[in-house]
Design brief:
Blueprint (H helix, E strand, L loop, with lengths): L13 H12 L4 E6 L6 H14 L3 E6 L4 H14 L4 H8 L5 H9 L5 E6 L28 E6 L4 H4 L3 E5 L5 H11 L7 H7 L4 H12 L8 H15 L11 H5 L2 H14 L5 H9 L6 E2 L5 H8 L5 H13 L3 E2 L15 E4 L1 H10 L6 H20 L7 H8 L2 H7 L5 H18 L2 H18 L5 H16 L3 H18 L5 H16 L3 H18 L5 H16 L3 H19 L4 H16 L3 H18 L5 H34 L2
Helix pairs in contact: 1-2, 3-5, 7-8, 7-9, 8-10, 13-15, 13-16, 14-17, 17-18, 17-20, 18-20, 19-20, 19-21, 20-21, 21-22, 22-23, 22-24, 23-24, 24-25, 24-26, 25-26, 26-27, 26-28, 27-28, 28-29, 28-30, 29-30
């Protein structure tokens, strides 16, 4: 009943050890549950806490849960006997005159200075005695002792353990702590420990496996960097290898990365969560990034697995995976008024990789991936059809999973898959999610260049969109270079008045404006505006855009009155054509206010920016880049107004001084 020895320093768990230590040192006793997925080091943490408690003079008893309530009762009775429970009282319990569990806990409530650890209680509903849940505190696990009961478990739910238990939900180690674990095991394996720790997701079991491997002089890979590189091609051998004894010995299974999560999945299956394993496998085939909860539908699970599903059974599977720490639900920020809260699902990197590499599926992987691709396309269609900004949070989450969708569908279904990425990129552009948009546009452009050629009209359009996204991110030189190439190719293929040529010329001017080359930009804008008016007419969206951007260039040249006149004209046209709340109208109003600010009309500029800020917050949301820009512009106008007020005060003061 002695705790296992801790073989190496316990890194990155100082806060958790202090929480346990404070409870052990305190006067009241209690119950603490260290919980989390397999491989996070729950037993190691408990063993270190036990060693520290023993060093402080506490009586420490270690009990291993063996899925046997009767054996647990015997072990706890022995622990109570060690702590002074009289033999006569135990004899009364053996002969049925008193309840053994009550006799044990009545005695433990009167004794202080002890720590009892019950390790690996992964089937808490079987603890007993009887069928009541642990949270009822009528069974073998209770928070009412004079000392501390420490339980380790993969079950992370507060409902299981009750409100009087102090839950310590372990998380993966931070990169620096993970690096320390690696260096403890393999101090001469190079300087890339932190990078390898990050690659392993801070999972102590994976870190220990890597460190042990690197510490062996005969290992093929001898440095952290070499091991990390080898993971890309030898993952199944390095971390996914099977152990012959794992199937029959749970202690072995717990210690092997390949098998440790099988214990939880087997338990979930036996508890009736029959879809937990296939849903985990399905999530493992997606990218290592958060997945929108709305993607994991009963239809997707049924199409992929061929198993009967309902909304209730999918919900139960996800809840079970979350309960055992195999699935995380990263928190989202407070929802904006008028926006939708989107649930997110994410696997630990190693859980995902081991699942994808080693677990057998009842259907060929191609069937599962085809189902994923079909439902990704449906999800994008749904998001694109949502009104206002409703679909924007989901669009951001879907973006990471779309490049692989295009790769899997090239070349046999290239056009349809490409259009799916373009559709989502349009949504992301409206949402101001430029980084996610850029990810998709780069992938589409590279794929079209390979499949269609760099001068195909579709490729030229994508290269143009990519350059615009770079410009929106402030990468003006890259944008200008790419726009210059696209304009040259477009002029080579199309006529000078072709709409794509005109747009390309206008976009190059916009990038030059971003670089501060206002005169060159203004010259190009004037040419583009004249061409747009001649080809499209004065009210065409491209004409309005060109006029607005010419005004911006004039503003940069200090020609504020001309800029203000053009912006005012463009604003009136946008309000007449699109209405007051259209994003283009809001942009035009913002530009007109900025030109007024350049003219020194600070009050009018501030008032207009304030109106526009309120409209953008209502239409686009408070965190949209355009809204943030409006907030900044309003502050700039207010600052100009304050400076003008101070100058007026000093001028008036000077007049009074001069007249005396």
């Amino acid at each position: 009943m002695n705790p296992p020895a801790v073989q190496a320093p316990v890194r990155g768990r100082e806060a958790e050890l202090e929480r346990i230590g404070a409870l052990v040192r305190g006067p009241g006793g209690g119950m603490v549950v260290v919980c989390g997925a397999g491989g996070l080091g729950k037993t190691t943490l408990a063993a270190e806490a036990a060693a520290q408690a023993r060093a402080q003079g506490q009586v420490v008893v270690w009990i291993r849960w063996r899925d046997d309530p009767e054996r647990l009762g015997q072990d706890l009775a022995q622990a109570a006997h060690i702590l002074g429970l009289p033999e006569a009282r135990l004899e009364e319990a053996r002969t049925g005159r008193v309840s053994l569990v009550d006799a044990v806990w009545e005695h433990l409530a009167t004794v202080t200075g002890w720590l009892i650890v019950v390790d690996n209680v992964d089937t808490p509903t079987r603890v007993g005695p009887g069928s009541g849940p642990p949270a009822a505190y009528r069974g073998w696990l209770r928070p009412h002792g004079g000392g501390v009961l420490l339980v380790t478990s993969r079950d992370t739910t507060g409902q299981t353990w009750g409100t009087d238990a102090d839950l310590i939900h372990l998380q993966p180690l931070a990169d620096d702590a993970g690096a320390a674990v690696l260096l403890d095991a393999a101090p001469h394996a190079g300087t890339a420990a932190e990078a390898l720790a990050a690659r392993l997701g801070g999972l102590p079991l994976g870190l220990n496996a890597a460190g042990t491997y690197l510490s062996v002089p005969t290992s093929r890979h001898r440095t952290f960097a070499a091991y990390q590189h080898a993971l890309e091609t030898e993952f199944a051998d390095l971390l996914g290898a099977e152990h012959p004894a794992a199937a029959t010995d749970p202690a072995v299974a717990r210690s092997v990365v390949r098998h440790t999560w099988d214990l939880s999945l087997d338990q979930l299956h036996s508890d009736g969560y029959t879809l937990a394993r296939p849903v985990l496998q399905l999530l493992a085939l997606l990218e290592p990034a958060p997945v929108p909860r709305t993607l994991i539908t009963p239809e997707l699970v049924a199409d992929a697995t061929g198993l009967p599903t309902t909304a209730a059974t999918v919900d139960a599977a996800l809840a079970g995976l979350h309960q055992y720490g195999l699935l995380h639900t990263p928190e989202t920020n407070q929802a904006e008024p008028g926006s939708t809260v989107v649930g997110r699902l994410q696997l630990h990197p190693l859980v995902r990789e081991v699942t994808a590499h080693t677990l057998n599926r009842p259907e060929p992987t191609a069937t599962w991936l085809a189902a994923i691709d079909e439902h990704l396309a449906r999800a994008v269609d749904a998001v694109a059809g949502m009104p206002g900004r409703t679909g924007w949070p989901t669009a951001r989450l879907l973006a990471t999973h779309l490049p692989a969708h295009l790769d899997r569908n090239t070349p046999h279904n290239f056009t349809t898959a490409r259009d799916t990425l373009d559709s989502l990129a349009d949504v992301l552009d409206a949402a101001g999610a430029t980084s996610e948009e850029l990810l998709l546009l780069r992938h589409v452009t590279d794929a079209e260049s390979r499949v269609l050629g760099s001068e195909h009209p579709d490729t030229l359009a994508s290269r143009n969109n990519l350059a615009n996204a770079l410009n929106n991110l402030g990468q003006h030189q890259q944008a200008a270079d790419l726009h210059q190439q696209v304009l040259a190719d477009t002029e080579h293929i199309y006529a000078p008045d072709h709409p794509d040529t005109l747009s390309s010329r206008n976009n190059l001017a916009n990038a030059l404006n971003g670089l501060g080359q206002y005169q060159q930009a203004a010259d190009l804008f004037r040419r583009a505006l004249a061409d747009h008016e001649r080809v499209h007419g004065p009210d065409h969206p491209h004409t309005l855009t060109s006029r607005s951007e010419l005004a911006n260039a004039l503003n940069g040249l200090g020609q504020y009155q001309q800029a203000a006149d053009l912006h005012l004209q463009t604003l009136a046209d946008h309000e007449r054509i699109h209405g007051p709340d259209h994003p283009d109208t809001l942009n035009s109003r913002n530009n007109h206010a900025s030109s007024l600010n350049g003219l020194g009309q600070y009050q009018q500029a501030a008032d207009l920016h304030l109106r526009n800020l309120a409209d953008r917050e209502r239409v686009l949301g408070p965190d949209h880049p355009d809204t943030l820009n409006s907030r900044n512009n309003h502050a700039h106008a207010r600052a100009g107004l304050a400076r003008a007020g101070r100058r007026w005060w000093w001028w008036q003061r000077g007049r009074r001084s001069g007249g005396t």
